[in-house]
Amino acid sequence: MATTGTLHLRSVSARLTVFLALLNALDSVNCDEQVPLILWTSAGVSRPGPSPPAAGHIVGQQQLSSYLETALNDGPRNVVLFLQDKMSIEDFTMYGGAFGNKQDTAFPNLEGALMSSSSPLVLPAVSWPASNAVIGQLQDQLETSPLYMDPETLSQLRLNASSPALLVFRLPYGIGADLMSAKEILSGNDEVIGQVLSTMKTQAVPYTAIYTALQPSREAASLSMEAGRGGGRSLLQAKGGYRERERERERQRRIKEKAGIYAPVEFKEDEETCILLWAKGLSVSILRSGRWEDHDLTPSTFGEGVSPKLHGSSCDKTRSKLVLNYENVLGHRSFKLIFAMSQRLYKVSARRWFTLDTVELEYDGTKAKFNGSRKVYAPAEYSYRCESVTNFRWPQLVPRTFNDPANQWRVSFEDFQIQGFNVSASDFSYASDCAGFFSPGIWMGLMTSLLMVLVLTYGLHMIMQLRTMDRFDDPKGPAISVPQTE
Known about the structure:
Layout: H1 2-25, E1 34-41, H2 61-74, E2 78-86, H3 89-95, H4 108-116, E3 121-127, H5 128-132, H6 134-142, E4 146-148, H7 151-154, E5 165-171, H8 180-203, E6 208-215, H9 220-229, H10 242-258, E7 265-269, E8 272-278, E9 281-288, E10 291-296, E11 314-315, E12 319-329, E13 332-346, E14 351-363, E15 366-371, E16 377-379, E17 383-390, E18 398-399, E19 409-419, E20 431-433, H11 440-464
Parallel strand pairs: 2-5, 2-6, 4-5, 17-20
Antiparallel strand pairs: 1-3, 1-6, 7-8, 8-19, 9-10, 9-19, 11-12, 12-13, 13-14, 14-15, 14-16, 15-18, 17-19
């Protein structure tokens, strides 16, 4: 019996060594653009899993969606998603005990979960835009909204095997002054994974677990150099557990606010953040007696100690509305700035998009509506960002009708960013920027260059058509006579 147990442990150790060696071999595949994804099921659940991709293959968004669909169709539909801020293959090869130092690994709980699972799936290279959209893909396939949780509140939740659930646990990733900082962060995240899996085991509900990241972490060498220059992110201490990391994150946020980088406007529904808004400047203007009168809303909306009134705001899976309430704006006793958003599935692109349907100004019972759905939109998992959103200079917002009171107003949002769906941990998701590749300046340069090329081509063509004369006059001799028949 002892010999059998020893052989089993040796085979498990060999499996983990091969797994980490595979990650190490794939480390040469442009890690700055890919993140790993690991999927496994709870102990005792056996199913035929999808075959992993060939070595060196980069999994795109469509292929990742196929992997997830196969896994959820064959396995449990209670999904536990561990979503780390950043992660790359080096994190496993450097801190996973890939070279025989198993006692020094930063992932003991993760390795234990993979050993207990009958069919783990390891995707070493997933394009990070695809991993960034994994919440939206799971939400579409499970047809349920994600629940952002922490290990302490998970014990209060009662799951049902027949009803799908999507539980999301956000894990930080920060680099301090030395390379050991990354290992401490990953060890703390592994402790969170262990706590969550232990709680799930007590509930005796089968589940599918996924461990991935929003974007890749940079190489350790470049991180060390950046830390030496003082440009790295501060360490989120992992020794104190999950609550200590949350306190450190809150402290860093307050430090940024004091430095002049104020926090976004945040609307919560049932203690969960569902709408975020940030802008460097918010201003409105009204036309009176042939003159534009301006009012800056920024000091009443953002900054330390400023708490904008958000009553009237609401959000759900398909519609969100953020209402900013002000007083005494341009002579109006009550003034509201309303952002109405919606999201839906577009079959042409096979994904969900959210649009800023309208921007409304409500003052003393009158409403001025601007339509923004044609210009202001982004994937449902992303936020929208634009350097300037206005209705008068390269307008993204237009009045709803010709007779709408909006024709007497101007709105200007500088360095504008908004997200009305899939907000996690009070942070904006990856931003979809409004700036197109071809700006007016680029078009002018291309058209001028094309015109010059056409003129040059025409000139070369004309020069090539010139013919040299084959007869010449001799001033001392008789004139040359050229017959008409030649």
